[in-house]
Design brief:
The protein has about 180 residues and is an alpha+beta fold. It has three helices and nine strands, in the order ββββββαββαβα. It folds into two domains: about 55 residues, SH3 type barrels; about 100 residues, GMP Synthetase, Chain A, domain 3, CATH 3.30.300.
């Protein structure tokens, strides 16, 4: 979604201020402007601030919650293509680009049939070390990967070595951000 949409909240809804990550409650019957609706989450402008609302709370905005569309592999393994598709549905709340195209994913390991079952290990970074939304973004990555069929365990580790830079953006991200 690239067009802004003004909606009236249908009920009280939890949100996190961007970029601090501070939890807030937006009261019912509050006008908010949806500025970004990507990957099943919503960034809204409310009272002069940006805030992120999780997909499970979409009905508070009069929207449908996201539904998983992955087919379950019959062999009981994790499909790596589904893992990357899930990662491409994780968005920075301020930037309309997913974490893969932003260059935030440094490593992705899918391990089928371990003692702990089928595992996914992610090593990622953030665009800024002091980003208050870091825990929100990493939780979003973990939650979306847990929804991939046959996944038993997800581990997301954060690193700032090497530090993120614009050079890590994919060409698609650069195009979206007007850098090409």
């Amino acid at each position: 979604m690239h067009e802004r949409e003004v909606v009236l909240t249908k009920r009280e809804v939890e949100a996190r201020l961007v970029p601090s990550g501070t939890e807030i409650m937006i009261p019912a019957d509050t006008f908010v402007t949806i500025t970004q609706a990507l990957g099943g989450t919503f960034t809204v402008a409310v009272n002069g601030n940006l805030a992120r609302i999780e997909g499970k709370d979409a009905p508070a905005l009069g929207k449908e919650p996201p539904v998983s569309s992955f087919e379950t592999p019959a062999d009981g393994t994790v499909n790596e293509n589904q893992v990357w598709e899930a990662l491409r549905n994780c968005y920075d709340p301020e930037i309309p680009v997913n974490v893969v195209d932003l260059g935030l994913i440094y490593e992705c390991h899918v391990e089928n049939g371990t003692e702990e079952g089928n595992r996914i290990r992610i090593l990622m970074t953030l665009t800024a070390a002091g980003c208050g939304m870091g825990p929100v973004i990493t939780d979003d990555v973990k939650r979306k990967l847990e929804d991939v069929p046959n996944v038993d365990k997800v581990q997301v580790d954060l690193t700032f070595d090497p530090p993120w830079s614009n050079d890590m953006l994919s060409d698609e991200a650069k195009l979206e951000l007007g850098m090409l």
